[in-house]
Every structure is written in C-alpha cells, then in structure tokens.
Amino acid sequence: MAQNLSAFLMFLGALLMFIAALGVARMPDLFTRMHSSTKSATLGVGLIMMGAAFHFGEVGMTMRAVAIIVFLFLTAPVAAHMLGRAAYFAGVPLWEGTLSDALRGHYDRRTHRLLSDETVQEQLTEGDTAS
Amino acid sequence: MILWLTIGFLVAAVLLCLFRVARGPSLPDRVVGLDLLSSVTVGFIAVYAVVSGEMIYIDVATVLALIAFLGTVAFAYFIEKGGMPWRKT
C-alpha cells in the first residue's frame, strides 16, 4: 500500500515537473515562463519528496524530506522574485500581447526604489507644469 | 514500471530545460531554465534514491537544493547590478 502511494506521488510530481518544463520551453516571454516554472516545480519537488518519504518510511528520511520541502517553499518564491525584479530592471521585453504593465513608471531607474501611485502622479503633474 | 515512466517524464523535463537554456533570447531566460533544471535534478536524485534503495542520496538532494538557491540569487544580483550591457536601450 505504501509502495503504491509512493509510486503514485512520485509519478504525479514528475508529471508536474514535465508540465513546468513544457511551460518554460513554450511560453512566449520571460515572466510567463517564470509563472509556469516556479509554482509547479515547487509542488513537483514536494510531491516527489513525499513519495520518497513514504517509500522508506523511516523517521530520518521523513525529516529530510520535510526539511527539503520547507526549504524549497521558503526559497523558490524569493529567488523567483529577485530574478523577475532584476529582469524588469534590465529591460527584458514583455510579450507583444501584454495588455497592461502595472509597474511602468513606478520604479526609480537610478535607485531601484518602488514609488507609490501618488508620487508618480506628482511627478507627472510636475513634468506637465515644467514643460 | 511506473518508476521508469517517472524517470522518463523527468528526462523529458531536463531536455526541455536544456532547450530553453540553449535558445533563451536573454540572460534571465537562461537563468530561469537553469533554476528549473536544478529543481528537476533534485527530484531526479530523490527518484534515483528510491530506485536504488539507498537513503543516503537524499542528502545530496538537500545540498543541491541549498546550492541552487544561492546560484539563482547570485545570477539575479549580477543582472540587477550589471544590467545587460550588450542591449542598446
């Protein structure tokens, strides 16, 4: 029973990872690729680790699997956020079908600080009066 | 039997990631491919530990998960500080 459950969990995890890799290979621009890869890859690794823990059924193994799952759930969003932010600053082009870019004009190009809506509006009106 | 199917899906995922690493139009695209490649490798090592019956391989997966996070963060820091100077804009 535990063997069947473990094999099923590992197969499900591998399927999710294949879907993530398919998205990374097929999606049209960087941010949709990240959207595809980070979430389903994290869940895939979690399912595979749970399958391995069920297969061995020992306390040490289960603790290692839980440690890996917790670590991945902590670090994968942080790494994805840092990479997406850096890519946005570096000027990676969005997909041509993109409808809206909510961050446009909100980042200070020099200090890399995120500005609020009010600050951006003030800067826009100041620019209008100056010109 | 189902474990071999699992390994087949993981190998296909590795090949798709390598396609993105080789093809990726910009540096962040390649880094996304490498990041997913490291995650797939962690899963692969866990599957191999089950296939071979050796529990010790899970420690390798732990260390690889730690190192891969540091690599991605280092790449992101490099891209944010250095930008992509080969781009004209």
List keywords for this structure.
heterodimer, A: 131 residues, Helix Hairpins, 4 helices, B: mainly alpha
Q: Oligomeric form of this entry?
A: heterodimer
CATH-defined architecture of chain A = Orthogonal Bundle
Tell me about the largest β-sheet of chain A: none
Instruction: Give the number of helices of chain A.
Output: 4
Biggest pleated sheet of chain B:
none
Averaging pLDDT over every residue of chain A, what do you get?
Answer: 86
**Would you tell me the overall average pLDDT of chain B?**
89
Number of strands of chain B: 0
Question: How would you describe this structure to a colleague?
Answer:
The complex is a heterodimer of chains A (131) and B (89). Chain A has 4 helices and no strands. In chain A, helix 1 packs antiparallel against helix 2 and helix 2 runs antiparallel to helix 3. With 131 residues, chain A is mainly α. Helix content of chain B is 83%, strand content 0%. Chain B has helices at residues 2-23, 27-52, 57-82. The longest helix of chain B has 26 residues, at 27-52. Chain B is flat and about 50 Å long. At the A-B interface, helix 1, helix 2 and helix 3 of A face helix 1, helix 2 and helix 3 of B.
